[in-house]
Amino acid sequence: MLLLQNARIATENSPVLLEGDVLIVEGKIQDIGKSLAIPEGARIIDARGRILMPGMFDAHVHFRAPGFENKETITTGSEAAINGGVTGVVMMPNTRPALDSATAIATVLENATHRSRIPVYTSGCVTKNREGKELAEIEGMRTLGVKMLTDDGDTTADPAVLLRAMQYATEFGMFFASHCEVPELAGPRALNEGVMSYRLGIKGSPACAEEIIIDRDIRLARAAGAHVHIQHVSSKLGMETIRWWKSRGDVKVTAEVAPHHLMFTDEHIGDYDTNYKMNPPLRTQADCDALLEGLKEGVFDLIATDHAPHTPFEKAQDFISAPNGITGLDTALVSLYHHFVEPGKFGWDLVVKRYSAEPRRLMGLPVAAIEVGQPADCLLFDTEAETTFTREFMKSKSQNTPFIDQTLKGRVDMVILGAEILLER
Amino acid sequence: MARKDLLDIASLHREEIEFLLDQSTSFKKLFTRSVKKIPALEGKSVLMLFYEASTRTHSSFEVAAKRLSAEVTNFNVDHSSITKGESVRETIETLQAMRTDYIVVRHGHSGLPGMIARQTTASVINAGDGAHEHPTQALLDAFTIKEKFPDPRGKKVLIIGDILHSRVARSTSTLLQKLGVEVAYLGPGSLVPKYVPASIRRFTDYEAAMTWAPDVVYLLRVQMERQDVQFFPSVREYHRVYGITNTRLAEIRDRGLYIMHPGPVNRGVELCDAVMDYERSLITNQVENGISIRMAVLDWLTPGGEFPRQEAYAAQQRTSPPVIVP
């Protein structure tokens, strides 16, 4: 039994924070109100000055298992999630072997049951081994609860293959998540084409490489009557393309934006810092501004980190040799607070809606809400405290993040899931 | 004023550039003596680490180091453990253990010499990294131009060709601008990026570029090996549209323009054969000046400096999980 006293409660529907006590009994929220009576045997938490909000949900993470356990495992990945206030995740299927069959999915889910303290969901491949040729065993994966199909990281190059997959899988109530990139235009370097790519002498990836596939995949979804979810949009025109299609209303399209694309530009790469090497690449301030506008407007339904761990050994190579990607689970919530909520660019309601409620809705899951009768799935956030992202602080097995050794405003103090306190600082 | 490394032109101050050009003048005077060697770097070791093929730059550095009495070791990439899958970083660790004083490095990846410099006590000299920088080429180009125009301020240099893939274009244009020279680029739209610095004029038409009245025409080698897709239809068309043809050479001769090229030359592509005999071709001068410039650079740098990210690097090593060699 847990009584959180005098918390300020954030919801997705109002920028105004409610104030009150929350009583949790046997993993469920039993009562919410002002000055609740203290039941016998209850542990009392003084939450005064701190914010109570639903646990975050990240619909785009890479836990690297099976196949790349030197970078991350389901255990370390989910502990990184808890460290950052995230209480549910959707894994991407770019593992080795790729998650393209019921057998592979079953193994991952079985592992997750034993090795994670939070629910871990997984997406499945569109095509076998993510090769873009033969359809994966889609229905078999559905029977194990897979809802999201994606050839993650590799755009399904042949539009005819993707169209057929959409026509087939939509019948089973599944949807498609698209990494949007024309590989022939983007090249392998993960650097925006522009002033910085000229200065650094690295062939850049033009934003049109992303915009073309955003448009293509939405058109394919429209033709198939499918639902397409556009992943980690990085460009202004990409955002505007989605906005336009949404305004038409004749195709089901959702989209996500990653915190790093809102916060950093290609200028941050500076002297070839591989912690800023990611795909899609960081673009310009104008792109960041447009993405923020898109997030506030609702063009982006959700925030997702694209948590992409790589070992220090791999990232310590030169910029061209180093792999793409940064970790995000440990840092997302605090960095969103530091960069946007604290300076007043958006409120907690947006964070709760876009990083907790909408991702769960996308996956067809019940929304975590701080309401009487709901299971306890929440976190306490201290807006006055600070977090220093040292290597020791991070729970991810890899620490390839631009936030390394930075101190940001805000701290995740406590994470509660059901009857368990998963984190307490 | 001395530095540990020479990695780029962009970070060099004008005073440093002037100093190196002056020193190069002094070293060049040695070339006419019967004994060309001086003991300036006696007891020092220079490691040549060339991951890409090179004739001019490699031999130029080697000659420069030997004229300063340094010991030169050639690291033969073809016969090293790199062929067994050793990463560049592991190679750097091995080299650091050898305590060499200078590492002259050429690599196809932009930024790699900087990475080496941060992890070794040796003075690292960038002898060309990807399409990023080639600082000693820029210095020898500037030196060659200054021999013809002692005060180059206000002079105009037209750089023609594959700007997109050219480290020479980046370094030389940056350096010339620091000396007050006006720079313009000319080349196919597919090879002259639209986002080059605003201070550099951009032409796609040869005649228009000539109207700009350059003093020097600097031709870049068409780097077929770097072009993963086709950037122009054929070398024949390239020569006709952007090359120095016999007809254009006549006009250049009439105008008294100088011609430069970093080599090696693709004859019949960037320029016609006759350019090699043109009295205002500075191509051979560039090669000769490369030696004195590189002597000046080696003499100027101070090995043994700190490597700034070593501590962070060591910390990474401590937390690194078991290494899997890619």
TrEMBL record, chain A:
First-level EC class: hydrolase
Keywords of this protein's UniProt record, alphabetized? Hydrolase, Metal-binding, Pyrimidine biosynthesis, Zinc
**Annotated pathway, please?**
Pyrimidine metabolism; UMP biosynthesis via de novo pathway; (S)-dihydroorotate from bicarbonate: step 3/3
User: What residues make up the catalytic site?
Assistant: 306
Tell me which HAMAP family the record gives: PyrC_classI_B (MF_00220_B)
PANTHER family per UniProt: ALLANTOINASE
Which family is this protein grouped under? Belongs to the metallo-dependent hydrolases superfamily. DHOase family. Class I DHOase subfamily.
Protein role: Catalyzes the reversible cyclization of carbamoyl aspartate to dihydroorotate.
Protein name in the entry: Dihydroorotase
Protein source organism: Hymenobacter chitinivorans DSM 11115
Automatic annotation (TrEMBL), chain B:
Q: Which UniProt keywords apply?
A: Pyrimidine biosynthesis, Transferase
Query: Which pathway does the database say it acts in?
Result: Pyrimidine metabolism; UMP biosynthesis via de novo pathway; (S)-dihydroorotate from bicarbonate: step 2/3
Among InterPro entries, the record links this protein to: Asp/Orn_carbamoyltranf_P-bd (IPR006132), Asp/Orn_carbamoylTrfase (IPR006130), Asp/Orn_carbamoylTrfase_sf (IPR036901), Asp_carbamoyltransf (IPR002082), Asp_carbamoyltransf_Asp/Orn-bd (IPR006131)
Say yes or no: keyword Transcription present.
no
Q: Which residues bind carbamoyl phosphate?
A: 56-57, 106, 134, 137, 263-264
Broadest EC class assigned to this enzyme: transferase
- Please indicate which superkingdom the organism of origin belongs to: Bacteria
An example Gene Ontology CC term for this record: cytosol
Q: Name one GO biological process term.
A: 'de novo' pyrimidine nucleobase biosynthetic process
- Keyword Transferase part of the UniProt annotation: yes
Q: Which residues form the Aspartate/ornithine carbamoyltransferase Asp/Orn-binding domain?
A: 154-301
What PANTHER family does the record tag this protein with?
ASPARTATE CARBAMOYLTRANSFERASE (PTHR45753:SF6), ORNITHINE CARBAMOYLTRANSFERASE, MITOCHONDRIAL (PTHR45753)
State what this protein does.
Catalyzes the condensation of carbamoyl phosphate and aspartate to form carbamoyl aspartate and inorganic phosphate, the committed step in the de novo pyrimidine nucleotide biosynthesis pathway.
Similarity section: Belongs to the aspartate/ornithine carbamoyltransferase superfamily. ATCase family.
The protein's matches in HAMAP family, at most eight in alphabetical order, are given as: Asp_carb_tr
UniProt protein name = Aspartate carbamoyltransferase
Organism expressing this protein natively: Hymenobacter chitinivorans DSM 11115
